[in-house]
Amino acid sequence: MENRQRLCIRGGRVIDPTTGTDDRRTLWIESETIIPQPQEISGDRFDVLDATGCWVLPGIVDMHVHLREPGNEEAETIESGVHAAAAGGVTTLACMPNTTPPLDEPEQIKFVLHKARRLDSVSVHPIGAVSKGRAGEILAPVADLHRAGAVAISDDGSPIRSAALLRQALDICKELDIPVIDHCEDMSLSVNGVVREGPVSRRLGVPGIPAMAEEVMVARDIVVARHTGGRLHLAHLSTVGSVQLLRQAREEGLSVTGEVTPHHLALTHESLLGEDTNFKMNPPLGTQEDRAELIRGLADGTMSVIASDHAPHRAQDKRHGLNAAAFGVIGLETMLAVVITELVKPGHLSPLQAVACLTSNPAEILGLDAGTLRPGARADIVVVDPKTCWTVDPQDFFSKSKNTCFAGRELFGKVKYTLVGGRVVFQT
Fold first, then answer.
1. Backbone angles phi, psi at 22, to 5 degrees
2. What DSSP state is assigned to residue 396?
3. What gap in Å lies between CA 155 and CA 137, rounded to an integer?
4. pLDDT digits 0-9 by tens, 364-405
5. For residue 337, what are the contacts with CB-CB under 8 A and spacing of at least 6?
């Protein structure tokens, strides 16, 4: 479908958490913008996109994506990542700084923005590094990174190792009104761990990562955030204890938010009993009790974001057995379907709740003008058929990497159209 000056999306169930909308209606687009229903439309020509039987949602805002470029283009590039995002209904993404070189200088932020803008598709927002070289020692030029276009800072892929450095980062980001995003892992506890410490790690005979490796850092981060008043976002939480600590912080009124990934919501460490390295990730998959508490944390608002933590790896980097294989799985092209299958269909979350976690909530945390279908907003939209069941085949993915933990799995929710600025950038 070509770019349309005027378009109406007709027959679908429009779900928009920013307006509380969940009903069947027509969405009107003129140029790049969503508009109110025209009073007189008989003389105007609107091309029609039929969304009968589908949900019409704000484009997904994925605030945790690894695009690998610069430095590891064999696994993913900005271009291939953008195509994968569009196929998954993601119209806005924030990319992590653990590239080579890392995104710790304004020039690196500008490089990513330039490459993404040339594609004229999904919006890409870089996240700058907290520390120079992501080495956890010297604060990066955070204000300069923000001026260059960074929407947050993080050393993701590594924790912010020093409480003093975290304090500095939170102080300056408070002035800039952007969040500090932390990968919570006490590496003196995780050491050479491979999977979650417990019966599965013992049965496999591999080193385990204890739940407290995450929880100790969550507790530390919350204490520092309490004393600075800065905005802290806790990435990919995975344990009962982490959710409980975050719940207490939010009840206290602290500016602390948290996210969870689709794989931690859908799977447990028992998935690793087959020794498939596509189930190896950091943080590791947890117990059924962890999974239940993560779902509860979303349902009661303790955690407000579902993010993919899309982590592409070359096939050879996943072939070395559990001990040596790289951590991480891809998720841009399966996230929406996993959420529909594992959260909405069983009734754990309402469609409005689930869509908020994928769209308006991450947009608000990052301060982005996205995740809404309000009139006047940019027409970033995904049309998804929630009843279509499909089998995940990584060979069909747009991502250069195929390391999914959902291969062969049947999921509900097929993206039919993805629109960016009123233009269809993906369709099936």
1. -155, 80
2. G
3. 11
4. 999 999 999 999 999 999 999 999 999 999 999 999 999 999
5. 390, 411, 412, 413, 414
Name every residue whose Cβ is closer than 8 Å to that of residue 416 and which is 6 or more positions away in sequence: 51, 54, 383, 384, 385, 427, 428
Which pairs with CB-CB distance under 8 Å and at least 24 residues apart come from 44-50?
Answer: 44/6, 45/6, 46/6, 46/7, 46/8, 47/4, 47/6, 47/7, 47/8, 48/7, 48/8, 48/10, 49/1, 49/7, 49/8, 49/9, 49/10, 49/383, 49/417, 49/424, 50/10, 50/11
156 labelled catalytic: no
Catalytic residue among 16, 104, 309, 317: 309
SS3 111: helix
Contact 170, 227 (CB under 8 A): no
Percent with pLDDT over 70 in the chain: 98
The span from the CA of 172 to the CA of 230, in Å, is 8
Phi first, then psi: give them for residue 358, nearest 5 degrees.
-95, -15
Class of 58-366 in CATH? alpha beta
Q: Where are the domains of the chain?
A: 6-55+378-399+410-427, 58-366
Angle between helices 211-228 and 240-251 (to 10 degrees): 10
Query: Whole-prediction pTM value?
Result: 0.97
Q: Which of 213, 201, 206 is nearest to 270 (CA)?
A: 201
CATH superfamily of 6-55+378-399+410-427: Urease, subunit C, domain 1 (2.30.40.10)
CA 241, CA 163: separation in Å to the nearest integer? 20
